[in-house]
Amino acid sequence: MHERSLAQALLTQITQVAAEYPGLVPRAATVDVGPLAGVEPLLLEFAFAEVATERGLAELELVLRQVPLGMHCDSCQQDSELYSVSFQCPKCGNHRIHITQGDGLILVHVDLVQPGDAV
Ligand SMILES: [Zn+2]
Predict the structure, then answer these.
(1) Rounded distance from Cα 97 to ligand 1 centre (Å)
(2) By CB atoms within 10 Å of each CB, which of 12, 15, 99, 116 scores lowest?
(3) Is it the case that residue 78 has pLDDT exceeding 90?
(4) Distance from the CA of 65 to the center of ligand 1, in angstroms?
(5) Cα of 76 to ligand 1 centre, how many Å?
(6) What is the dihedral sign for C-alpha 9, 106, 63, 60?
(7) What domains appear along the chain, each with residue ranges and CATH number?
(8) Rg value, the chain, Cα
(9) For residue 84, what pLDDT band results from cuts at 50, 70 and 90?
């Protein structure tokens, strides 16, 4: 299952971040999801909760943020956000653009707390 392997990869990243701060445990992780990531947010949340529980992190919360596609136009050199996949620069109409954000999952932030702290 696609979402499950993504959840496993995220949990591994989060665990690595947390490992740099001995004594703290991850409580929440913020992840940006772009329109081209091919992710069903509900399925990802479900898979994440399952994998987190398996790894002894049942308290860990996943905060998914859906972000628009970021793009840069090679013709007018402006940056834009695309809310639908048209692959055309909304500012000058040129098709010579390249996608600069939104084509994957990005772990943005991990909240770490002392074990036993109230939420
Ligand atoms: Zn343009």
Answers:
(1) 8
(2) 116
(3) yes
(4) 27
(5) 4
(6) positive
(7) 2-113 (3.30.2320.80)
(8) 17
(9) low
